[in-house]
Amino acid sequence: MQAFSQITLFPLDRPYNAQMQPGPKPTKEQPFFGQRLAHFRQKNGLTQQQLADELDITRELVGHYERRCENPSIDFIIKLSQTLGISVDELLGIQPEQIKRGPSPRVKKLTQRLVELPKGKQGVVLEMLESYLDKAS
């Protein structure tokens, strides 16, 4: 009888690829609302977890709204549109997406946090930001 330690369950020459999608592939097409939600979330540079934190819900629930929910509550739609800085009409596709000038809601929130820092710490953050932007351009 073979010893348990000699049994190989997974091939050693092909380790798990971290980019593989876990679980079964979806069999249903993403609902229209989920497509709009994912589009605006990504446009604002937010991950599902970051949006979940903003909305005070779980990342799994954001995934549910993006992949499976066909008719979310009006309360969720209003809160989401406010968080993403878009109108409900834009979110629902009733009105075409408007091209907005200015910073994203995330940048606005970070700017507000920067303003609330003491002047000395603001200077440190601004120096780091300027240094990074100078190197990036």
Features:
7 helices; mainly alpha; 137 residues; 54% helix; 434 Repressor (Amino-terminal Domain)
Give the fraction of residues assigned to helices.
40-55%
What is the helix/strand order? HHHHHHH
CATH architecture of the largest domain: Orthogonal Bundle
The CATH class assignment of the largest domain is: Mainly Alpha
Strand content: under 5%
The N- and C-terminal alpha carbons lie at a distance of 66 Å
Shape: elongated
Which secondary-structure class do the elements indicate?
A: mainly alpha
Give a count of the beta strands, DSSP E runs of length 2 or more: 0
Name of the CATH homologous superfamily of the largest domain: lambda repressor-like DNA-binding domains
How would you characterize the overall build of this protein?
This protein is mainly alpha-helical. It has 2 domains: 28-98, 434 Repressor (Amino-terminal Domain), CATH 1.10.260; 102-137, no CATH class. The protein has helices at 32-43, 48-55, 59-67, 74-84, 88-92, 105-115, 119-136. The chain is elongated.
SSE topology:
Blueprint: H1 32-43, H2 48-55, H3 59-67, H4 74-84, H5 88-92, H6 105-115, H7 119-136
Quick gist of this model?
With 137 residues, the protein is mostly helical. It contains seven helices and no strands.
